[in-house]
Specification:
By secondary structure, this protein is mainly beta. It is built from one helix and 27 strands. The protein has a single domain, classed as TolB, C-terminal domain (Neuraminidase, 6 Propeller), CATH 2.120.10.30. Strand 4 and strand 5 form a beta hairpin. About 45% of the residues are buried.
Length: about 300
């Protein structure tokens, strides 16, 4: 099977014909939540069913950062460079301080427990946006079976005021999040109900209000086939790189499928990193891949 599938001729300039899909680690259960730490030259990511957060570096390979970890899934960095994490089992969003202490940033909404925070992004104003589906409390595999106290939703947290508010509540299974490079658009993944015969699966696109704190009405941006989307990232030109059932799909800012990187296994999440943010790290089930591309990951304001 060819590594690349070129659907739009423009995709030829996005890829490097002599770049390989490197296996950086394997033997995991289900990888998620990659985030690049440029100042430490390493990738942080989660092996959710094994209840551990892992670290990969070019020189050190894969090591355990912390375990147990509350079945953490998505990760991001705040404006001070600290690790922000979504914990399925502990049903909260946390911040890892520089001395290693864990601060719980959000665990309840109107005195009701969150479900299982899944993915998270941090905006340039310091606000933390995260999804809260039921996935982590629906089974014991990625968290633990518990009763839901809230409907699935997308939240915005202002950590300076400890203010948590819902920005979208019309999702069955809100999942991956990604801001456009200028932060005027938020892409949101709908993966539907976990055990539904035909779950609703698509990527939505929502403009932010002028003050950047709310979402305007969201529209369907793209339906990923096969498998549906999970995690996604933007490059600096606004193209959307998303997980799919057969690898990584690259979409134009208009939602047109430009091409694919085939992994021969379903992909859950991805992140840009490396010296120039032009290495794509891919969490594909039991394997962590890396591949150099001819695009750089977005750096927001």
């Amino acid at each position: 099977m060819d590594l690349y599938e070129i659907i739009d001729p423009s995709f030829r300039s996005f890829i490097l014909p002599n770049a390989t899909l490197d296996t950086l680690g394997t033997g995991f259960r289900w990888l998620e939540g990659p985030v690049w730490f440029a100042d430490h030259n390493c990738l942080i990511f989660s092996d959710i069913p094994n209840d551990r957060v892992l670290r990969w570096s070019e020189t050190g390979g894969v090591s355990v950062l912390r375990s147990p970890c509350g079945f953490e899934n998505g990760h991001a960095r705040d404006r001070e460079g600290r690790l922000i994490s979504c914990a399925h089992h502990d049903r909260c969003v946390t911040r890892t301080e520089w001395d290693g202490r864990i601060t719980v940033l959000a665990s309840h909404y109107h005195k009701r427990r969150l479900n299982s925070p899944n993915d998270v992004v941090v905006k340039s104003d310091g606000s933390i946006w995260f999804t809260d589906p039921l996935y982590g409390i629906s089974t014991d595999y990625e968290g633990g079976k518990e009763v839901s106290e809230l409907a699935p939703a997308v939240y915005r947290l202002d950590p300076s005021r400890a203010k948590l508010e819902i920005v979208a509540d019309d999702f069955e299974g809100p999942n991956g999040l990604c801001f456009s490079p200028d932060e005027r658009i938020l892409y949101l993944v709908e993966t539907g109900q976990q055990f539904a015969a035909h779950p609703v699966r698509h990527i939505r696109r929502a403009a932010l209000t002028d003050d950047g704190t709310r979402l305007c009405a969201a529209t369907v941006f793209h339906e990923v086939v096969p498998g549906g989307a999970d995690g996604l990232r933007c490059d600096e030109d606004g193209n959307v790189w998303t997980s799919a059932g057969d690898g990584v799909h690259c979409l134009s800012p208009e939602g047109v499928l430009l091409g694919k990187i085939r992994t021969n296994t379903p992909v859950a999440n991805l992140a840009f990193g490396g010296r120039h943010r032009s290495r794509l790290f891919v969490c594909a089930g039991q394997t962590l891949f890396g591949i150099y591309v001819n695009r750089r990951g977005a750096v927001r304001p």
